[in-house]
Design goal:
There is one protein chain. The protein has 26 helices and 25 strands. Strand 21, helix 23 and strand 22 form a beta-alpha-beta unit. It folds into 4 domains: 162 residues, Lambda Exonuclease, Chain A (Alpha-Beta Complex), CATH 3.90.320.10; 178 residues, Rossmann fold (3-Layer(aba) Sandwich), CATH 3.40.50; 120 residues, Fumarase C, Chain B, domain 1; 200 residues, Rossmann fold. Helix 17 packs antiparallel against helix 18. By secondary structure, it is of the alpha/beta class. The strands form 4 sheets. An 8-stranded parallel β-sheet has the order 10-9-11-8-12-17-7-18, with helices on both faces. Strands 21-22-20-23-24-19-25 form a 7-stranded parallel β-sheet, sandwiched between helices. Strands 1, 2, 3, 4, 5 and 6 form a 6-stranded mixed β-sheet that branches. The chain is 44% helix and 20% strand.
Length: 761
């Protein structure tokens, strides 16, 4: 039986005919919505005998492969002795700039539909029409050509012939991949304790098309335990692609290492890492325009050759590999990674490429997702990240600035109305300068949509070149993002307003991201949420959109209780008590390190509190070496901070850091590089309007609002910070929890079991 290659008409013609440059100049954000309206408006003019949205498919045998090509034709129009395929394209361009040769892809797509229809209905001639619709003006422009069946047949055969080398490469890779997976053994000599159980649970979950929440301890090897069974399931034809999602760049390395181990063990599988555009851009400024960037200029003329090259010679495609081939073929490394991800077996990327409605991978359609698995690493981070993805904010200052800059322009009227809207909001605020609104602000959304329409007209007429136009463009993108989120607004959102001097800030805030996460998750075959601190588990299942049907598993820690020596310091770190208890805290730290020298990380609930204790400590104990985390440390400074923690150091080192910050998770300081962790406070987020509104919302839904807004997020940070200490079976050390609340039954139940044998200071 010949191998079958399934592909859409669009995929086929874009592969063969795409050409030109990446040119991220202004594009209207309403293209998709307006395009759908344009299609429907034109289709309404069809006669009753005409057909619209016609599904078409055909089979073509070539080079020992069968190509299954399918798509959906916009319209089939019947006119006396003529049958015409209508391909409708919406555009933001002025129609005077479009002629019949503007886009060969459009003709190619329509001609393939014409071929399939003619073949199915035994027709010797077909007419093809391109109908262009201007989004703003609704103006139309049409081009028509006639073809014989033999001409269409030849054209489609040539398309398949040009696509075949890529298809052959992919088919050859698939066979090698599946054969290598069948022979693939677990890449280490033996499973660690609990590792086989976790891997088995993941395999069962994928096989049964379920979802799972896994709390698996540090040291078990979570990454390989999730990737290995997923690879095995792929080899058995249960799925086509996996996405390994991470919250931080540092955890992405673990996934890359796991694939390298599997590759050394014989796995032949393509895995692509997507790195943020700003990090991989070869130019000083990230300006994706052909006039500025040689890697954007002519990108689509070179991409096919580059894809064939990299997939012929590479399997594991990391950032450095992408950069190497991008330079070789003179391609934008970011866009190259996205094109490769669309083809690869595995994709390693940030959460936002799947969940964020503003930046998600739009080229992955639902039919791709239903055969894909999501592996969500450090899934506890997804709750707050998702809240921000499903939220949006605006400030009055931008509209006031545009009001001053665009006098006499249609934009001026729109921003004047918006500026006044914010002034009126300010008057409604309380004495504290705050206002909470439960309903979606329809009047605001209407004003914003009017602004979007007028700003588009301005930007299309005058591409951004000046600071004035850049301000308009930046505000336009903020507003379109806001309008997009407004369409997701429901009872799980709230709108709040805060004033600061003359400015007014408004935020549509997602209180509970569970429903929207669930809607994304439902499109995929299986979702695996895993973390060493998915605790308390019921809270995270609830907040991540879990259901009663989802599997859950908790793997016990493989470390002995004796590896941790745990103390609880009975003093208050509540905000109002901090000045009174600070001296006791400083004294406790000095006494601890005088008796137990070594390297320590001390975590505080805020920068202000950390600096206050740091200043007192260094003043009283200048002989003890200390380092301090600063706000907005770049990657180099973070590495320098961690490099200070040396194994077998001759002197004591205290690293002062912030709870929930970059050093409280994803940091591996094994052996004597870290001898102790001190956690000051129970980790509660700072009391603020946002958290208090969240508390009230969850209370109104029958949950413990204070726990959902403050206690559970806080204790998770504490467990994360304490987890920096024991990273291997040989590690030992001291944990000190500083707060009298840790002694209450409520908090005792939330702490890890292995911290249970504690002593009170």
């Amino acid at each position: 039986m010949l191998p079958e290659i399934k592909l859409s008409v669009r995929t086929l013609v874009e592969y063969v005919f795409s050409s030109g440059s990446i040119d991220n100049q202004f594009r209207t954000a309403t293209t998709m919505t307006e395009g759908t309206k344009a299609h429907k408006a034109i289709q309404k003019t069809y006669a009753d005998t005409d057909q619209k949205e016609v599904p078409l498919k055909t089979e073509i045998e070539y080079e020992s492969m069968v190509f299954l090509i399918e798509g959906r034709c916009d319209g089939v129009i019947f006119r006396e002795e003529e049958i015409l395929i209508d391909e409708i394209k919406s555009t933001s361009k002025d129609l005077s700039r479009i002629d019949e040769n503007t886009n060969p892809v459009h003709w190619a797509q329509a001609k393939v539909y014409a071929y399939i229809y003619a073949k199915d209905h035994d027709l010797q001639e077909m007419s093809v029409q391109l109908t262009y619709v201007q989004n703003v003006t609704d103006e139309q422009k049409k081009f028509k050509k006639n073809f014989t069946f033999l001409e269409l047949q030849k054209f489609v055969r040539e398309l398949v012939e040009k696509y075949a080398p890529f298809a052959l490469l992919m088919e050859k890779h698939r066979l090698q991949r599946d054969q290598s997976i069948q022979k693939l053994a677990f890449p280490f000599a033996a499973f660690r304790k609990g590792q086989r159980k976790l891997a088995g649970a993941i395999y069962k979950t994928i096989s049964e098309e379920k979802n799972i929440f896994a709390n698996a301890p540090t040291g078990i090897g979570k990454t390989i335990s999730t990737i290995f069974p997923t690879v095995k399931a792929m080899g058995e034809g249960k799925l086509e692609r996996m996405f390994y999602l991470t919250a931080k760049t540092i955890t992405r390395q673990s996934a890359e290492d796991a694939f390298l181990h599997l590759k050394k063990n014989g796995l032949c599988m393509s895995a692509v890492t997507i790195t943020a555009k700003e990090k991989v851009c070869f130019k000083e400024e990230t300006i994706c325009q052909k006039e500025y960037c040689e890697f954007a200029n002519g990108y689509y003329d070179r991409i096919n050759e580059a894809v064939l090259d990299i997939f012929t010679h590479e399997t594991f495609i990391s950032r450095s590999t992408i950069e190497e081939y991008a330079r070789k073929h003179q391609l934008c490394p970011f866009e190259f990674s996205l094109d490769l991800a669309f083809i690869a077996d595995a994709v390693i990327c940030d959460y936002n490429y799947i969940f964020d409605p503003k930046v998600s991978l739009k080229r992955f359609f639902d039919e791709h997702k239903k055969n894909s698995v999501l592996l969500i690493d450090e899934a506890h981070n997804l709750v707050d990240r998702a809240r921000e993805m499903f939220s949006a904010d605006l400030s009055k200052s931008n509209f006031l600035a545009l009001k001053r800059e665009y006098k006499g322009s249609p934009v001026h009227d729109a921003v004047t109305k918006l500026n006044q809207y914010f002034i009126d909001l300010k008057k409604k605020c309380s004495d504290k300068g705050q206002l909470v609104l439960r309903e979606r602000q329809e009047d605001l959304v209407e004003l914003l949509e009017e602004f979007v329409h007028l700003a588009e007209m301005e930007l299309l007429s005058y591409p951004p070149k000046s600071e004035q136009q850049q301000l308009l463009l930046d505000t336009y993108f903020e507003v379109t993002g806001f309008v997009r989120i407004s369409k997701l607004y429901d009872e799980r959102h709230v709108t709040y307003v805060e004033t600061e001097k003359n400015d007014v800030f408004l935020k549509m805030f997602c209180l509970d991201p569970s429903y929207l996460l669930q809607q994304v998750r439902k499109k995929f075959r299986t979702t695996v949420h895993f973390s060493a601190t998915l605790l308390p588990l019921p809270y995270f299942i609830d907040m991540l959109g879990g259901s009663a049907e989802d599997y859950r598993i908790k793997i016990p820690s493989l470390f002995a209780k004796e590896q941790n020596e745990v103390f609880i310091q009975r003093l208050s770190t509540r905000y109002q008590d901090r000045e009174h208890t600070k001296n006791k805290l400083v004294r406790m730290i000095s006494e601890l390190v005088s008796k137990r020298s070594g390297n320590y990380l001390i975590f505080f609930p805020s920068y202000q509190y950390m600096k206050s204790v740091y200043e007192d400590f260094t003043t009283n104990y200048p002989e003890i070496r200390t380092i301090l985390q600063t706000n907005k440390m770049d990657e180099e400074k973070r590495e320098q901070f961690l490099a200070e923690f040396k194994e077998d150091g001759s002197e004591t080192l205290l690293g002062f850091a912030v709870l929930g910050g970059v050093f409280s998770e994803g940091v591996d300081l094994k052996g004597d590089r870290l001898n102790g962790v001190i956690v000051v406070g129970v980790g509660h987020p700072q009391v603020c309007l946002e958290r208090n509104v969240m508390k009230e919302y969850f209370q109104s839904t029958g949950k413990n609002g204070y726990d959902y807004a403050y206690t559970y997020p806080g204790i998770n940070k504490v467990i994360q910070a304490g987890g920096r200490l024991i990273r291997s079976e040989k590690d030992t050390g001291t944990i000190v929890l500083v707060d009298d609340r840790f002694l209450s039954p409520k908090y005792q139940q939330l702490l890890p079991v292995e911290w249970g044998d504690f002593r009170v200071i």
